[in-house]
Amino acid sequence: MESTLLLISPLLTGYLLDLWLGDPDNWPHPVRVFGNLIAAGERFLNKGGFRFVKGMLLSVSLVVLVFLFTMLNNVLRPYPGLFWLVNSVFVYFGLANKNLIVEGAAGVFGFAEQPGSGRRQLARIVGRDTSKLNENQVRIAVFETMSENLSDGVVAPLFYYAIAGVPGMMTYKMINTMDSMLGYRNDRYEWFGKFSARLDDVANFIRRFTAILMVLLTGSSRGWKAILKYGNKHKSPNAGYPEAALAGILDCRFGGPNVYHGKVVQKPYIGETGRTIQNEIRRVSSINHKVCLATLLILIVGLLASCSTSSAIYEKGDAASVTTDLFPEKVKINHANGFSIAYHGNYKTVKIVSPFEKTMDTATFVLVQRGTPRPRGFSDSQIIEIPVQSLVVMSSLHIGLVGFLEAEEVLTGIGNLKYVSSAKVLGRIGAGKIVEVGKDQGLNDELLISMHPDLIMATGSPVSRMARYQSMNQAGIPVMVKFGMGGNHAAGSCRMGEAARGAFEQGSIGESEVCEC
Q: In this predicted model, what pLDDT tens digit does every residue of 111-155 receive, in sequence order?
């Protein structure tokens, strides 16, 4: 749930920022940076032979570069406020709803006041030559680009954000920007831009969903008919669907001949009625706003539902897991007053109480059989998938327990390598399979989060020590604290041993193998 809220809150904030601010001309913008990179690459590579290969290499390189660069924002996850702020800004830049509406209206109203100004304004958002367009052609061009870019500038970026966060959204924006700059069928770009155009076709399957939303929100039966009849008429496999939807809703016709880079391009007609379009910009703007808001709400509900589903006790499709006991051999606790374990089909809850008399520290962990659904009502930092496949220990004292459990093969990190004496562990260190992660003030949070082990074993008391591992909890990494010894209660080390044995799916330690339990 925590990670889902970290995804949803920037989504809402970015949407509100776009609604409020739009895209001021004098502000920096990632898409402008993308455009400069694409232009520089095109000038350098688009010459000589092998232009398709060169264009493909440029496209792949830029897509990978953007994805990896924006992945860096994940290091901010331990700092929720900063993570929210940075991601909100990226979502704001990734959305173009208000700017699309403002630019479209400026083209329509600008032409009515001064044709030359209106044509120049329109040229900011369309690729065709606008210098000789009449008023009806200007309106057609505005509505065509508002329908297509409702998907490219609004619905698709939101969709890819929901799928892969800011990296998904920005990677899509790079793909879309490359197509808008390189995806032309002329002598200069026919081969160099072909790969980026096909990549954009794949990424923009979402335009079909945009068209359906447009029709559903307007209740237009003509829109449905237009989608079915004209959606696949466009040369681009997906571009025709939102245009067909809007043409059906407005009962008009788009397409026809236009000039691109000095060459007449005959586009197929989309829509039934070749009428003169009136001043209908407000109606089209309203459709854009409705679709944007509906997409936002659908994705938020979907994210919350997926979070709820992933945390449900049992998922649909595996009815056997509801009744099957995956832990037929139960641990028997004879003497450990501060240790308890309860079984629930595919998972077991373990509670460990501090052995110190004056504390009431209790840690609860949920040991879930790997590959089965997670139970409801627990945070990610409490859930340990078993058997554990990757483990980090903060003290060399834990290595003895790991050795007893014969679990050295899953050990991937140690707080300090200086005091390691186990031959098996030293061998794994020499092979580069175990790294030093630091401890106390030298703890390398970023490294641990990037490793994302199934379990971290630490030392101390939960209340005093867990604050140090707060970033691990926020990242959903379980931290099991070894309490130490003391008081009239059972030894904390024994309780740790029982819990660890369960985590490695090796049954019960018993009464005498390690300590008196």
A: 777 787 778 888 887 878 888 888 888 888 899 999 999 999 999
Residue 57 CB contacts under 8 Å (≥ 6 apart), including other chains: 45
For residue 337, report the phi and psi dihedrals to the nearest 5 degrees.
-65, -30
Residues 420/399, Cβ–Cβ less than 8 Å: yes
Overall size of the chain counted in residues: 517
Strands of the sheet with 455-459, listed across from one edge: 435-436, 411-414, 391-393, 455-459, 479-482
How far are the Cα atoms of 92, 147, 243, 456 from residue 207, in angstroms, in the given order?
A: 21, 9, 10, 44
Query: Which of 353, 352, 349, 350 lies closest to 376, judged by CA?
Result: 349
Which two three-digit tokens encode residue 334?
A: 């004879």
Q: CB under 8 Å, gap of 24 or more: what pairs does 47-51 form?
A: 51/191, 51/192
CA distances from 137 to 27, 102, 107, 148 (A): 31, 18, 11, 16
Residue 258 has what DSSP assignment? E
Q: Is residue 482 a contact partner of residue 496, using CB atoms and an 8 Å limit?
A: yes
Measured distance CA(434)–CA(414) in Å, rounded: 7
Round the average pLDDT of the chain to a whole number and report it: 82
- Cα-based distances in Å from 331 to 189, 302, 338, 375, 390: 69, 39, 15, 21, 23
For 369, phi and psi rounded to 5 degrees? Answer: -60, 125
Residues 106 and 22: their CA atoms lie apart, in Å, by 14
Q: Helix (H, G, I), strand (E, B), or coil: what is residue 497?
A: helix
* d(C-alpha 121, C-alpha 131), whole Å: 11
Interstrand relation of 479-482 and 362-369 (parallel, antiparallel or unpaired): unpaired
List the beta bridge partners of residue 256. Answer: 267
Angle of CA points 318, 319, 321, to nearest 5°: 75
Output DSSP code: residue 95: -
Q: Mean pLDDT across the stretch 2-11? A: 83
Q: Report the alpha-carbon distance of residue 365 to residue 462 in Å, rounded.
A: 13
Position 206 pLDDT exceeds 90:
yes
The full DSSP string for 307-328 is HHHHTSSS-TT-THHHH--S--
Q: Assess contact for 362 and 385: CB atoms under 8 A.
A: no
| Reported pTM | 0.64
Give, in order, the Cα–Cα distances in Å from 239 to each of 175, 271, 427.
15, 14, 58
